[in-house]
Amino acid sequence: MSSTEEALQERIKELTCLYEVSSILVNAEAATMAETLRAIALSLKKGFQFPDSTEIAIDTPMESYETAPKNLNNYLAADLKIFNKVKGEIVAFRKDPESRFLKEEQPLLDNVALKLGNFLERVEIQKNEASLKRQMERADRLSILGEITAGIAHELNTPLANILGFAELLKEDLLKEGRSLGDIDKIIHNTIFSREVVKKLMFFACEMPQEMERVNIVPSIKNAIALLDASFSKAEVKYVVKIEEEELFLRADIIQLTQIIFNLTINAIYFSPRNGVVIIETFQTKDHIVLKIEDEGPGLSDEALEKVFQPFFTTKPTGEGSGLGLSVVHGIVASHSGSITVQNNPNKGATFTVKLPKS
User: Fold this and answer.
1) Which numeric CATH code is attached to 3-130?
2) Helices in 178-210 by DSSP H: which ranges?
3) Residue 4 CB contacts under 8 Å (≥ 6 apart), including other chains
């Protein structure tokens, strides 16, 4: 066979490889990434001059695949770029250092890397779109819940105030007559408790009146942590406070701001294991004051991540939580035109991040 015929056959093999890789990626999905990389690697082997002695290794941020353990004595490599950033590579290698690669085989590897990079970009875009859709759906649900909650709170507020007022009047009458006040005290206690629940619902619905002023968040954090020192000690949980500057100003209601810090920190203490560490961090960006509270607890399930700010949702045992603490925080943050998010940490625990505008 002439060298021209051999060269032509090699070009045909390369073009066939590129066609196969394109066909594989057209039908590929993120869920079948391992199978996709395997199919690409096997197809790529066939595109080289000596397919039986050529091995392929593909490394991506999602999955990796090797047709044999990587040997880099004799190899070709192509960077795998996702949104113009190198995020992996494709390597073709041979054990025999004397078995040279053809100069045309480097462009083949580059083309396959380009096609795979484009596919991974599409996967990333789809993931971002799905995440954005979930966030929008969750925001819609929270908005509807806020409207419902505000209505419930307003409806309950007046009768609760009446019950409390009449019970206190009745208590005064019974005091004059020297009669037992036990049942009246129960009425008053439960009414006050119910009124506090209504107040929390109104926080969630952003219906509480505010006294907005320019305040330095640093003393509020330090005071709140100092008041919670006994709670940390009782739970045998340590804490670390990270504050970049002594003055971090924003416009806020100082009482509600303190409630954000209290609720998030108490929540972190509750879920932290003995000898665990809670990290309270605050810093500023160009437009925001950022507060982060990180714990070393069990983290949140997918369901909890979706519902954690909804009123009455709780992962605590019955009787240990009303499920209103985090919804109150959400309401306060929203009323300050800020945002709050939560995510599980890579190793353990979760981090709540609050961003409040400076002005």
Assistant:
1) 3.30.450.40
2) 182-204
3) none
Q: In this predicted model, what pLDDT tens digit does every residue of 211-251 receive, in sequence order?
A: 788 888 898 888 888 888 888 888 899 999 999 888 888 88
Q: What is the dihedral of CA 76, 78, 79, 81, to 10 degrees?
A: -170
Task: Write down the pTM of the prediction.
Answer: 0.46
CA angle in degrees (0–180, nearest 5) for 277-271-333: 90
State how far the Cα of 281 lies from the Cα of 181, in Å rounded to an integer. Answer: 49
* Measured torsion, CA atoms of residues 113, 118, 124, 125, in degrees rounded to the nearest 10: 170
- Closest by CA position to 219, among listed 227, 230, 211, 229: 227
Q: Which CATH number fits domain 213-357: 3.40.30.10, 3.40.50.10860, 3.30.565.10, 3.10.20.880?
A: 3.30.565.10
Residue with tokens 């879920």: 271
Cβ count within 10 A of residue 22:
13
Element spanning 136, H or E: helix 105-177
Which among 216, 299, 276 has a CA at the least distance from the CA of 250? Answer: 216
- Chain segment 53-102, per-residue pLDDT in tens: 899 999 998 889 999 988 888 999 999 998 888 999 999 999 888 888 88
